[in-house]
Amino acid sequence: MQSDLFGEAVAPPPAKAASAAKPTPAARRNAPKVRPASSMEDWLGPAQRLPASLRFGVSTWSYPGWDGLIWDGEYDPGTLSKHGLGAYHRHPLLRTVCVDRTFWRPLTVAQYAAYAGQVDDDFRFVVKCPALVTDAQVRGDEGKALKANPDFLDPRLAVEHFVQPTLAGLGAKLGVLVFQLSPLSLHWLGRPAALLEGLERMLAAVRQALAESPAVIVAVEVRDPELLSQALVDTLQAQGATFCLGLHGKMPPIQDQLPMLRALWPGPLVCRWTLNRVFGAYGYADAQKKHAPFDAIVSEDLHTRAALARTIQGITGAGQPAYVIVSNDAEGCAPLSIQRLAQAVPG
């Protein structure tokens, strides 16, 4: 006999009961590797007043600094990369995520399926097309252009290395395919007609491959202001695609990009708020240095946040879907930026 915390005698449990309480190997395998933060429950109410067609998300999710916001502990980045999505998607405000790693290397059907298996049926993925299709340059490890890319805007590669694997692996959980055209050389900027002809051929092949999945949104993001034109609008409209708002130092501010969406109206909103303009066109390294460990709003951008909230209200209020992806490099902490955006969207 021994005493419990209140001083009363307690008999030890029978050996059989103790054995039964021990987790089985199967239970240990199925236990979540990353547990969600308890603070998620505080956002159930605010999330319920948002339009059902609005989906907020982040670009990548492997940040230990989100302890207390998304996770319940300081997990290492490798663990979060492999297992964090299961906890992430339980946050009431986070109903999508952008898979950025596909830009650097195509993923397999099995890799996409593994992502899909970590989330519920309401969740949707935004996926970036590999650079082997959307970058006009072949680049070295540090991003320096080495030579022209002979596969730029290749329709076959876009379908076989991107559309088909994402559809097969994600199924109904695929929400948006993003084709981000990397900064173009003067060769292409001086030949806009040829560029848009190539883009249209690729988008036509993509649309054909999506014939059985009409709900999937196809969005084109550019990194050259010169491309914001009626000619691009016409190309996108012809192939049932939309313009992705790219809130980034290399592009004009949000109010100067909104005319593209007005010209494409009615249509969905796809927005990627990736870099605060105060860091300039190529300030990712500076933003990372200033914002780490990404657990607080450090570079607040009230103007962009307010304009984006109004845009969300207008588009979802008209019954159109909205996918809004936020990076840590926007203000310092993507989950906190999303919380403030959610609060700014009128109910």
CATH superfamily name?
A: Protein of unknown function UPF0759
State the name of the first-level CATH class.
Alpha Beta
The assigned CATH architecture is Alpha-Beta Barrel
Helix content: 25-40%
The oligomeric state of the chains shown is single chain
What's the total number of strands? 12
Secondary structure tally, helices: 15
How is the biggest beta sheet arranged?
Answer: 8 strands, parallel
Biased composition (Low complexity): 16-27
Region (Disordered): 1-42
Protein name: DUF72 domain-containing protein
Organism: Castellaniella hirudinis
Structure write-up:
The chain has an 8-stranded parallel β-sheet with strand order 3-12-11-10-9-8-5-4. Helix content is 40%, strand content 16%. It has a single domain (36-344), classed as TIM Barrel. The chain is built from 15 helices and 12 strands. The protein has helices at 15-21, 25-30, 44-48, 77-88, 109-116, 131-134, 155-170, 186-189, 192-209, 230-238, 254-263, 284-291, 302-317, 328-331, 334-344, and strands at residues 2-3, 9-10, 54-58, 96-99, 124-128, 137-139, 145-148, 174-181, 217-222, 242-247, 269-273, 322-326. The radius of gyration is 23 Å and the shape is globular. The protein has 347 residues and is α/β, with parallel strands linked by helices. Helix 7 (155-170) runs parallel beside helix 9 and helix 9 (192-209) packs parallel to helix 10 (230-238). Residues 1-42 are annotated as: Disordered. Residues 16-27 have a biased composition (Low complexity). This is DUF72 domain-containing protein. InterPro entries: DUF72, UPF0759_sf.
